[in-house]
Amino acid sequence: MAEDKFEKIDKEIEPQEQSHQPGSEREMSPEPIYDDKDYKGSGKLKGKTALITGGDSGIGRAVAVAFAKEGANVAIAYLDEHDDAEDTVKAIESYGAKAFKSATDIGDSENCQKLVDDVIAEFGGLNILVNNAGKQFPQDDFLAITPDQLMETFETNIFSMFYLSQAAVPHMQKGDSIINTSSVTAYRGSSSLIDYSSTKGAITAFTRSLSQNLADKGIRVNSVAPGPIWTPLIPATFDAEKVGKHGGETAMERRGQPSEVAPAYVYFASKDSTYVTGQAIHVNGGDFITS
User: Fold this and answer.
1) Residues marked as catalytic
2) 47 pLDDT more than 90
3) Which residue ranges does the record annotate as region Disordered (predicted)?
4) Which of 262, 29, 17 is nearest to 132 (CA)?
5) Could you tell me how far CA 175 lies from the centroid of its own chain?
């Protein structure tokens, strides 16, 4: 069987590190595949407006581009990776969609409310909320997890989902959707990412519970649980040795690319999933098989 483009780029990735979170896509070598040219949009999200947190790079950027291909206008929120964010805006606009970017800390409830207000002011509505931003701080020693680390991880990874969803729901209508990024670690755990994995477990429960709460409004709530994906968070989190081995433990023996995850978000955002809520799609290369 011929080697595909994803296998090829995986073999080109050398051990590397970044010194800051959540990391920069421009500093990665090679950069992730966020725009799969084989993916052709068909207007599934025409006339829709989406807000994606962590939309400057990684999975968020790939989702932004896929949504733009499907006809949606896209707002991205990010922390301080201004160059990456500008690259994403250009990629969105290259497909004829309108783009909006906002640098903000979504761990703060007032920032989340302002973010949603700004998106409404820019586009006149909001149909799709993708809660995707996240942080992780490995600690092999459980006792080394400090209250400050615990709070920062929870504020970014799960508190923000409450804040943003509460701000967005009053503007959403029947047929709109909320999509949360969970993780394979919510299902198999991680000995060195206990606080991160705990937030991802909370996201899974949040998704299931909120889906029931909003079902009578016709707003669907689902999650995507990625496995090892080549995003800036990886070299910004782990040492070079672990980065070099990243994804090798999966059944497919490689890491995934952001563009391989994005179609799951398109499915949940579109009419293709009108009878699906409270569910998770696992995109993990066989890293963990759920029952």
Assistant:
1) 196
2) yes
3) 1-41
4) 262
5) 21
pLDDT of 1 over the 50 cut: no
Has residue 5 been placed in a domain? no
- Which DSSP helix (H) or strand (E) runs through 121? helix 109-123
Tokens of 176: 């709109």
Q: Please tell me what DSSP assigns to residue 277.
A: -
Query: Has residue 187 been placed in a domain?
Result: yes
The 10s digit of each residue's pLDDT in 82-110 is 999 999 999 999 999 999 999 999 999 99
Q: How many domains does the chain have?
A: 1
| CATH code of the domain in which 278 resides | 3.40.50.720
Q: pLDDT > 70: what percent of the chain?
A: 99
Task: State how far the Cα of 231 lies from the Cα of 221, in Å rounded to an integer.
Answer: 24
Q: What is the pLDDT of residues 108-138, one digit of tens each?
A: 999 999 999 999 999 999 999 999 999 999 9
Q: What is the span of the domain harbouring residue 202?
A: 49-283
* Stated pTM of the model: 0.96
What pLDDT is recorded for position 291? Answer: 61
Amino acid at residue number 3: E
> Which whole-number Å values give the CA distances from 181 to 12, 50, 53, 172, in the listed order?
27, 15, 10, 19
Residue 291 in any domain: the answer is no
Q: Is residue 34 part of a domain?
A: no
- Kindly tell me the burial class for residue 141, based on how many C-beta atoms sit within 10 Å of its own C-beta (0-12, 13-18, 19 or more): exposed
